[in-house]
Amino acid sequence: MTEEKKYKLLHDRPTCIGCAACPAVAPDFWEMTEDGLKSDIKGGKNLDNEWQELEIEEKDVEVNKEAAECCPVDCIHIEDKEGKRII
Ligand code: SF4
């Protein structure tokens, strides 16, 4: 049985300036830290390079793409099922 491939939501967290746009656009996926200095992907995995990632369904790509388009420092990315960046 082959596992169904998913899209990947990526957060270049070191670059985030904590503007709070992403949780406003996509509150199911993004939240601000308590000190308000950065955002986090809800349920995201912390990577060694301080980025975060979360596998998402195709239906959740659009709202996260909107969040990425609102990000002033372009630190939100999405990879398609083949691992190619779509934003
Ligand atoms: S929109 Fe970008 S800079 Fe603003 S909080 Fe979200 S990830 Fe950080």
Q: Care to describe what's here?
A:
By secondary structure, the chain is α+β, with helices and mostly antiparallel strands. The protein has a single domain, classed as Alpha-Beta Plaits. Helices cover 17% and strands 25% of the residues. It contains two helices and six strands. The chain starts with 6 loop residues before the first strand and ends in an 8-residue tail after the last strand. The mean pLDDT is 96. Bound molecules: iron/sulfur cluster (SF4). The site of iron/sulfur cluster (SF4) has 14 residues, from helix 1. Iron/sulfur cluster binds next to helix 1.
Short account of what is shown:
The chain is built from two helices and six strands; from the N terminus they run βαββββαβ. By secondary structure, the chain is of the alpha+beta class. The chain has a single domain, classed as Alpha-Beta Plaits.
Number of helices: 2
Distance N to C terminus: 30 Å
Question: Can you give the mean pLDDT?
Answer: 96
Ligands (ions, cofactors included) = iron/sulfur cluster
Largest sheet: 4 strands, antiparallel
CATH names the topology as: Alpha-Beta Plaits
Counting helices, strands and paired strands, the structural category is alpha+beta
Strand order of the largest sheet: 4-5-1-6
Q: Please state the second-level CATH architecture.
A: 2-Layer Sandwich
Task: Please write the string of helix (H) and strand (E) elements.
Answer: EHEEEEHE
- 3D shape: globular
| CATH class category label | Alpha Beta
Beta-strand proportion: 25-35%
Helical coverage, percent range: 10-25%
What kind of oligomer do you see? single chain
